[in-house]
Amino acid sequence: MSLKKRSLQLFLTGVEEKWVSSKAEEFCQLYWHRLMRPAGLIAVANEVTSGAIVTLCSASPEIVLRPFAEKNLGSN
Q1: Is the dihedral of CA 11, 20, 34, 69 positive or negative?
Q2: 44, 52, 54, 74: which has the highest count of C-beta atoms within 10 A?
Q3: Count of the separate structural domains present in the chain
Q4: pTM for the full model?
Q5: Cα dihedral 6, 16, 29, 38 sign
Q6: Other CB atoms within 10 A of residue 4 CB
């Protein structure tokens, strides 16, 4: 098990998923424009429109990425 995974498990032990999801959504709203590059968003949108399967790869937990994926891809 990686150090990051162990650290997250320790940090999140006893924390409700609903709270983490809420904070992830807030983070997305606050930092979307700073973190997302317009050319990248256009490129991803074009791929989705063409029928491609788009996969996000990150060291962040899925629960943190979910709001970004839903906002950009409009799906799960």
Answers
A1: positive
A2: 44
A3: 1
A4: 0.74
A5: positive
A6: 11
